[in-house]
Every structure is written in C-alpha cells, then in structure tokens.
Amino acid sequence: MALISIIPDFYPTGDARLLARAEELKPALHHEIKEPIGAFKLKERYSSEKNDLVLHQLPHITMGKGENICLDFGEHLVGHVTLELSYSGSHPDAPAFLKLKFAENFRELSENSQEYAGWLSRSWIQEEYVHVDVLPARLTLPRRYAFRYLKITMMDTSPKYKLLVKHAECMTETAAETGRAKLLQTGDKKLDRIYAVSLKTLADCMQEVFEDGPKRDRRLWTGDFRLQALTNYVSFRNYDLVKRCLYLFGGSRFPDGRVSACLFTKPTVEADDTYLMDYSLMYVVALEEYLQETGDEEALNDLYDIAMQQVEYAVRQCGPDDVVNEQAVKDTFIDWGDDLEKTACAQGVLIFALRYALRLARRKNDWSQANWLRQRQESLRKAACQHFWEEEKECFVSNGQISEASQIWMVLADVAEPEKAEKAMRKALILQEGPGIQTPYLHHYYVMALLRAGLREEAIAHLKNYWGGMLDAGADTFWECWDGKDPDRSPYGGSVVNSYCHAWSCTPAYIMERYLFSTNDSED
Ligand code: RAM
Fold first, then answer.
1. What is the pLDDT of residue 88?
2. Edge-to-edge, what's the strand order for the sheet holding 270-271?
3. How many helices (H) and strands (E) in the chain?
4. What percent of the chain has pLDDT over 70?
5. C-alpha span between 242 and 58 (Å, rounded)
6. How many angstroms is it from 81 CA to the middle of ligand 1?
7. Which pLDDT score is estimated for 521?
8. Which residue in 427, 443, 433 sits closest to 483, CA to CA?
9. Which of 87, 251, 309, 312 has its CA 20 to 30 A from that of 112?
C-alpha cells in the first residue's frame, strides 16, 4: 500500500499565535562527541563477510581504489560527522573520490542501494559521493545522519597516493536529557534490555520535534507522536516538547480544521496534505494524556476546540447505522499491508478517542458537549457490537475477515463486556491466517489490548518475543517494521529505506513502567 496523498492547491491554515507558542517551546539540543569503537573491511563491497581491523592501527591503513573501511561506533547515533583524512605516497595529483554510506544496522551496510526499486524516494538512503580536492582535510558533513556504521569506499585515487582515515567522530544531537530516565530492573535480563533499548530509541527520535525516525521521515507524525509522548512521560519527562508538538499540529491544519497526519517544520511550519482519521483522533488522545500528566490549563484552553473538531469530523463519517463509512475506512491507517479489512478498526479507534474527548469535555466543564459525546460513544459502541461481534466465532469479524487488528481495536474501545474481550484476544493469539500484524505500531496496541483483556502473561510473552526478537537480530534501537519470519520485509518495496530507529517502536518502556512492573496504576 503506497501512502501518497497529493492534494492540488492545498493551503493549510496558519495560526500565528499557536505557532509562536510552539516556537517558544523549541528545545535546546544536547550534544556529545562519540568516536568509533571498532573497524573492519567488508570482503566485497556488498558482502556481509568482514575482516576485523585493529582500531588503533586505523590511521595507518591505506586505502586504494575500490577498497573500503567500515567504522563501528558501537551504538546508534544521531548527529553530524567529521572525518580527518590524509594520504600516504606522493603528493595527491587528483582529488580523492569517496563514497560514504551510513547504516543504522549491519544489514543495511552491505545492501546495494542500486537494487532498490520501491515507492519511497531513494533519497532517504544515507549515502554520499564526495570529492576531496586537497589533502589533508577535515571534512564535516552538512547532513545529520542516523547510524551506527559508516562505510568509506575509495572510489578512486591516483597511482601516486593512497587515502588515510586519521580520525572520525560524531557530534550527537538529542532533545532528551538522558540522565533523567532511570532504567528498570525486573530481574529478567531480556526485559531489562528491551526497556533500555526502547528508551534509546525514543531519545534518538527526540529532536526539535518528536521525529518518527531520525533516518526517515525525520518529521512529526500524529500516530507516532502519541506513543512517544507516553514513553517520554515515564522517562525523560520533556513536557514542553510534547506541548510544542500539540501546538504545531494545532497551528497548521487542513483548511477545514482537520489535524494532518504529519507536519513539516522547515523552512516554515506546514501541515502535510495527508489526512489519516485514526491519526487525527490520536491528537485528541495525546492532548488528554498530556493534560493528565500536567494539568496545563493554557493548553486545554488553546487546543480544546481543535480536539473537538477532530472528533466531530470523524463522527460525521458514520452512516445512519452508526458504523463508519467507506471514506473513513479509506482514511484510516492502523498498520501497513494491503490485506487488512479496516472497518472494525476504524470504528474502534473512533470509540476509543471518544473516551478521551469525553474526559476533555469534562475538564473543560463543557457539559452539553460531554452529553453529546457520551451519547455518540454509546450508540457507536452498540452498533459495533451488533455489527462486528459473531457469537459462533467468538470474536469480531470485519466484513468477513478475522484479524488481530479488529480484535485489538474492538477491545481497546471497550465494545464488549470483559468475557467477550478475553475471547477475542484469545482468538487473536491463535490466529494463523489473515493479514497478521506488520509493524511495532500495531504490536504496541496488541500488547495493550492483551492487558485490557486481562491477559498479562501473554502480554509479557509478546513483548519478549517481538521486541526481544529484534534484539536477537541485532537491534541497538527498535525498528520501523520487523517480522522474524521475513526479516527482509519492508512496506516500501526495499528494506534499505526502512528506518531502524523508529518512534512507534519505543513503547515497551512505557508498558513495563505503567502496566507491568510499577505500583502506579493507570486507567488506560
Ligand atoms: C511512515 C512512517 C511513520 C508512520 C507513517 C504512517 O511514513 O513510518 O512513522 O506514522 O508511515
């Protein structure tokens, strides 16, 4: 499924006051200098076989035409790279022509990007061709990269000299105050590591906004943002960054008031011309959760109407039978993959969001709105039960399809009483066929639905299997998509553009802290 929305003559709104407030909340970035902890050569340019090098000998290893050196920084980094280059032999009589490839994980390093033929732009692949006219040189690259490995390939020198890489360093960037987050000790090593890696994932995505991924798309997406905000509350507690993002989304919207699925901040703040109904509803959820954390009256007063607009728009997408219409289903993301029948999911997300909208209305003492929201919540819930629950199958069925996603969103929406919710999630646990779950985004909601149905052990097991599976496959930060049975899977037609540090994958820390190993009980 290619998610490309192009609306000709799209002019998003610009609310100067909200955007000015967002600007005031822009975070200071924290920096550290990091150096490689290891080096190796790939046997062939695109092979996964390597020969290790001794790091302290690196400044003396000469590189001739066609040779490569890979630097391993030992952890995932986001920042700006500087290389100190020199030469051995005669005075260079021709420029050094290098290819630099940054890779978030080892697989990506050895992939040949020329073979990529997917639908997302190949410009996301982090590689550069560089000419260095004068050696020695100190080369600071203008782009910010997200990477653990850097492969330097000598495309050409001349017979008179060879290249030396004297030194390499990265000045990292993050808005997270990493010292503020404590690690969790559960007594289970795998869970503890999952916790630590999910915080690292979040920290690397925390930049001037909550980015979805520092390699790609490097921007603010509503669905990712809600999950980042939650994990941030149990770790780095940067409330201003959450508030800034709420104001940004509010400050630039569709002309009819809808919150966009994602937003650009440069050169100026501008909503993207992509609307996803479930994502715009997550704005409502995220605002309410932010207020639960902070009680921030200013944000409530400034953003309440915007939140209500999202709900009202979505409610208008329901037919006379109180079920979401075809357009709403088309506008709903839920997960990657073409095969998922999303009607039950779209209905579920809407009912779920109504719960949060209702809390907002109560906070605001807006009682007529609260009344209306309650009625809509109840009628959509009843309709969902009638429409999607199938007694003989003991689960929710969406237009003939049984999927994990439908069970998840019906359960999170509290559509059925607890026994039915448990049956639905037990069905999800044993489903063999169907569209499956493609991304950590839906895996997050899967774990939440297991917990809501009272299946705590199953939820823990899933955390360990799924996120633990990424660790076993070498993750330093959690990935945008992962399927242990098909490690090459990509929603984009080629895994070289996948993001290997992806915000929507950062929630295990939140789940463990708020639901599994903490004394603080939370309602949702
Ligand atoms: C991709 C990104 C982003 C996600 C959207 C729907 O472009 O992975 O994180 O929210 O899709």
1. 96
2. 220-221, 262-264, 270-271
3. 15, 15
4. 98
5. 43
6. 26
7. 46
8. 443
9. 87
What pLDDT does 522 receive?
A: 47
504 lines ligand 1 (CB under 6 A): yes
The H or E element spanning position 509 is helix 508-511
The C-alpha angle 81, 86, 91, rounded to 5 degrees, equals: 145
Give residue 45's region: left, alpha or beta (phi > 0; psi -120 to 50).
alpha
Distance in Å, CA 288 to ligand 1 centroid: 22
Pairing mode of beta strands 262-264, 270-271 = antiparallel
- Those residues of the chain that have pLDDT short of 50 are 519, 521-524
Q: Which of 346, 216, 366, 201 is nearest to 281 (CA)?
A: 346
Q: Yes or no: say if 13 and 254 are a contact pair by the CB < 8 Å rule.
A: yes
pLDDT value of position 1: 62
- Residue closest via CA to ligand 1's atom 5 equals 221
Mutate to test the pocket of ligand 1, among 219, 221, 336 (most ligand atoms within 8 A of CB): 221
Whether ligand 1 lies within 6 angstroms of the CB of 223 is answered as yes
* pLDDT of amino acid 497: 92
Q: Closest Cα partner for 288 from 306, 312, 315, 272?
A: 306
Structure tokens at 124: 């996301």
C-alpha 514/C-alpha 524 separation (Å) is: 9
Cβ of 208 below 6 Å from ligand 1: no
The amino acid sitting at 94 is A
Identify which of 212, 228, 444, 504 to mutate to test ligand 1's pocket (most ligand atoms within 8 A of the CB). 212
Under 8 Å between Cβ of 398 and 388: yes
What is the position in ligand 1's atom list of the atom closest to the CA of 276?
A: 6
CA of 150 to the centre of ligand 1 (A): 25
How far is it, in rounded angstroms, from Cα 259 to Cα 146?
Answer: 28
Which among 487, 452, 448, 447 has a CA at the least distance from the CA of 463? 447
Q: Encode 179-196: b = buried (16+ Cβ within 10 Å), e = exposed.
A: eebeebeeeeeebeebbe
Share of the chain above pLDDT 90, in %: 87
SS3 201: helix
- Six-digit token string for 34: 């990091």
The residue nearest atom 9 of ligand 1, judged by CA position, is 212
* Å from CA of 44 to ligand 1 middle: 33
Pocket probe mutation, ligand 1, options 202, 224, 507, max atoms within 8 Å of Cβ:
224
| Ligand 1 within 6 A of CB of 214 | no
Helices marked H in 252-342 — which ranges? 277-294, 297-315, 326-330
113-141 residue pLDDT tens:
889 999 999 999 999 999 999 999 999 99
Determine the Cα–Cα distance for residues 141 and 144; give it in Å rounded to an integer.
8
The answer to whether the CB of 212 is under 6 A from ligand 1 is yes
Task: Using a cut of 0.85, tell me whether the model's pTM lies above it.
Answer: yes
